[in-house]
């Protein structure tokens, strides 16, 4: 499978949100608390305000297989299509976030998402905190990565 990373374009919004919701639900074992329409609105009108948003596209199918929303200090969203996990897409997106950073990144992941924890720790992130200040009211882990 070959994929490219492009800046998010709203023409991909339905595919992106469908993939994002499926990936998140698989990761945390809970249904998304927001409606599909609210999620599309969030992506197109709120997330893009403070983040650069990128999507990974499977070139053979023109299918969205990943999303990254980041700024110079934070990885705010990183989700990979459930059928395309473990194929290097997440690493490529995370490396892109590192390149766009100021040399230091933070992110949160849910404590129940063991695959994400292993992924971030394999890619140089360290745990710096814990909490549960999120809409899902699930325990989460705060990670940090520094370039130096």
TrEMBL record:
Protein name: GNAT family N-acetyltransferase
SUPFAM superfamilies: Acyl-CoA N-acyltransferases (Nat)
CDD domains cross-referenced by the UniProt entry: NAT_SF
Sequence ranges assigned to domain N-acetyltransferase in this UniProt record: 3-148
InterPro entries: Acyl_CoA_acyltransferase, GNAT_dom
Annotated EC: 2.3.1.-
Keywords: Acyltransferase, Transferase
Pfam family, one: Acetyltransf_7
Gene Ontology molecular function: any one: acyltransferase activity
Organism: Paenibacillus illinoisensis
Top EC class of this enzyme: transferase
């Amino acid at each position: 499978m070959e994929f490219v990373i492009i800046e998010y374009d709203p023409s991909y919004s339905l595919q992106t949100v469908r993939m994002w919701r499926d990936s998140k639900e698989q990761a945390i074992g809970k249904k998304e608390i927001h409606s599909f329409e609210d999620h599309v609105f969030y992506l197109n009108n709120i997330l893009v305000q403070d983040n650069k948003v990128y999507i990974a596209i499977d070139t053979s199918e023109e299918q969205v297989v990943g999303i990254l929303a980041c700024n110079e200090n934070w990885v705010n969203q990183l989700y990979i299509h459930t059928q395309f996990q473990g194929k290097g897409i997440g690493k490529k997106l995370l490396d892109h976030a590192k390149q766009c950073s100021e040399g230091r990144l933070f992110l949160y992941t849910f404590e129940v998402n063991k695959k994400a924890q292993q992924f971030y720790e394999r890619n140089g992130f360290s745990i710096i905190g814990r909490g549960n200040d999120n809409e899902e009211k699930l325990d989460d882990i705060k990670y940090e990565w520094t370039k130096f």
